[in-house]
């Protein structure tokens, strides 16, 4: 279980995160949902250990990680721009992080990840020869082979559209469930958050507006921000989600 306790962060005397506390169970997918500048990436980077918080604690499986360095936390992130190495082919990108960690995965496991993400036909291709969805899958594979204890994804779907977006979404879901991998995903798209996650953390200007299941967010919005910003956007897209939540929201 991941526990965030009263995390706060300021940049130049401006509060960016204010007293964020929440608990995430093993294998759960949680979306961080909020407008641009609300503090989503900052929170993700604090969990990863890339950014230092001013106040608060991070506990993972009963271990206090607050002062533990990024490389010793055992978490891993997929950045929005994938950050793949253009001079290496898909396969070499996937195994890059294993260079100094031989034995972390067996050949068998490596094959399993590659097959699971349907990357076998693309292993010898250059990064420039891959589509957006294929690059995203290579970035996911590269992260998964490191066997992270926590998977962090910063807007993994925003560069994708339509069918490809749906297929990556389904894959993220099955990875979390099959490997019981706790996953935190940043998004600014309410529809994406509602259809992808077990729970959603709605952030407004650095504070928690609501933390709950998609059902709770839809049926019991806690305040005007959730009602206004989130539900208004959803009404625009309601055709796409009404089948999930019943006729009355169509
Ligand atoms: N290194 C930094 N130095 C100073 N201010 C920063 C720094 N990083 C972020 N900020 C500020 O903190 C606030 C939150 O930024 P953050 O990147 O966490 O937002 P976000 O929710 O991820 O936004 P977006 O959806 O646009 O990616 C913003 O006002 C931003 O300008
Ligand atoms: Mg961001």
From TrEMBL:
InterPro entries (UniProt xref): AAA+_ATPase, ABC_SmlMolc_Importer, ABC_transporter-like_ATP-bd, ABC_transporter-like_CS, P-loop_NTPase
Taxonomy, superkingdom: Bacteria
Does the record carry Ligase as a key word? no
From the UniProt record, list the reaction(s) this protein catalyses: a quaternary ammonium(out) + ATP + H2O = a quaternary ammonium(in) + ADP + phosphate + H(+)
- Molecular function (GO) terms listed? ABC-type quaternary ammonium compound transporting activity; ATP binding; ATP hydrolysis activity
Q: Which PROSITE patterns match?
A: ABC_TRANSPORTER_1, ABC_TRANSPORTER_2
Q: What is its EC number?
A: 7.6.2.9
User: Is Hydrolase there in the keyword field?
Assistant: no
Q: Which UniProt keywords apply?
A: ATP-binding, Nucleotide-binding, Transport
Start and end residues of each ABC transporter domain: 2-230
What does the subunit comment say?
The complex is composed of two ATP-binding proteins (OpuCA), two transmembrane proteins (OpuCB and OpuCD) and a solute-binding protein (OpuCC).
Q: What is this protein called?
A: Carnitine transport ATP-binding protein OpuCA
């Amino acid at each position: 279980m991941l526990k965030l306790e009263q995390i706060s962060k300021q940049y130049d005397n401006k509060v960016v995160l204010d007293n964020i506390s929440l608990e995430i169970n093993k294998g759960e997918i949680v979306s961080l949902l909020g407008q641009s500048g609300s503090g989503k990436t900052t929170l993700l980077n604090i969990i990863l250990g890339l950014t230092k918080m001013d106040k608060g604690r991070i506990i993972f499986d009963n271990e206090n990680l607050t002062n533990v360095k990024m490389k010793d936390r055992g978490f891993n992130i997929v950045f929005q721009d994938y950050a793949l190495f253009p001079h290496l082919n898909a396969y070499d990108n996937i195994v890059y992080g294993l260079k100094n960690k031989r034995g972390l995965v067996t050949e068998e496991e490596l094959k399993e990840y590659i097959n699971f993400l349907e990357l076998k036909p693309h292993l010898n291709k250059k990064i420039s020869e891959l589509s957006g969805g294929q690059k995203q899958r290579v970035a996911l594979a590269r992260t998964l082979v490191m066997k992270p204890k926590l998977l962090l994804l910063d807007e993994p779907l925003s560069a994708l559209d339509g069918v490809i977006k749906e297929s990556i979404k389904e894959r993220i879901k099955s990875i979390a469930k099959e490997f019981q991998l706790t996953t935190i995903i940043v998004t600014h798209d309410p529809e994406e958050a509602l259809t992808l996650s077990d729970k959603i953390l709605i952030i407004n200007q650095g504070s928690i507006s609501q933390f709950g299941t998609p059902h709770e967010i839809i049926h019991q919005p806690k305040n005007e921000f959730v009602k206004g910003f989130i539900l208004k956007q959803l009404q625009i897209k309601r055709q796409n989600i009404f089948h999930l939540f019943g006729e009355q929201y169509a």
